[in-house]
Amino acid sequence: MKKIDFSFRLFAIGLLLLLLGCSSARVMMPTPNVYLNTEGDPYHNLPKELKGSEVQLFYITDRKPEKNDKGNLHYGFGRSASLAFGTAVVDLGVDMTWDELLQASRTQKRSKPVKLALRQVTEHVRGPHSPIPYTLIDGKIVEEPTLIAERKQLAQAFRRILVQQLALTPRKEVFIYIHGYNNNFDDAAFAMAELWHFLGRIGVPIIYTWPAGYPSALFGYTYDRESSEFTVYHLREALGFIASFPEVEEIHLIAHSRGTDVAVTALRELTLRTRAAGADPRLKFKIHNFILAAPDLDIMVAEQRIDGDKLALSASRFTIYTSPDDRAIGIAKKLSKSPQGRIGTFQPRGYDEVSKEYDGVLWCI
Description:
Blueprint: H1 6-20, E1 54-67, E2 73-91, H2 98-104, E3 117-129, E4 134-137, E5 140-143, H3 145-166, E6 173-178, H4 185-198, E7 204-209, H5 220-230, H6 232-244, E8 250-256, H7 259-276, H8 281-285, E9 287-293, H9 299-308, E10 317-321, H10 327-336, E11 355-358, E12 361-364
Parallel strand pairs: 1-7, 6-7, 6-8, 8-9, 9-10, 10-12
Antiparallel strand pairs: 1-2, 2-3, 4-5, 11-12
């Protein structure tokens, strides 16, 4: 059987994110080329619990919880001061058997569209409001002890659930997807379920979903942009929780569009804090792959944060996927009046090949 290398899977996934953009389509993404013309079953080593059209993924969110018309849990674009952890079930092939989904996952010419549906969203635990109040005692910052204890309980409750899922896979790794502008909770869940499926259903899939998707053509981007700044504090908390779990060996961060600014800013702040304490952020936070797809980042800002603060040293592999003709990033450039443009459409001089190493970062164009 022709084996599909993990790095090639990630390469294909990055390209697919560029093609998907901020779409809210409810059919499965195109099959990556690495899955075409392969012999045998690329999922044959999976335990039976991971085979099936329904995919359970984890979510971390600071979206405000709401109730939909049927009284079920729903997350909108409102912001919450507390961080919540839960699980969501996505059906990757409505009314399809596992064999039918497998066949559809290995061809570009599907006999029928593979429809997606969000089946169940369950919030398991919610932490205290943050930031936690503090007092100064003898010149030292002391946060409220009861809220610190509550936050630790939150982390341990999430850890117990996560460990159960890690037990099903030989690779003790987590894949965290951070969506972009104008994406709702469902968009993030569908994207992560598809990405994890085409990554070979290895490790544990997690979406970090922040309060994006404000329903206004005029103010939608500005609201989402400020929400992306609001959520950085919570993403730092979440990464700290997960990295502290001894059962998790590696973390892969996959960020798209405006979510790349969230990811880069959070990693930068963690990096500066960790280096100031004399430690190695790459070892402390276990980040193996850090992937930015169509980054909605000002080039001059990105140069300071990524190159200036040496963020490539905070992950084992740092990859940027750009698309010079990306229309959404072009709009962001006009709205933001970026003097040198956005990193998502940037092409380093002399780098015309598909991928090249540049200042410690792998660029895929």
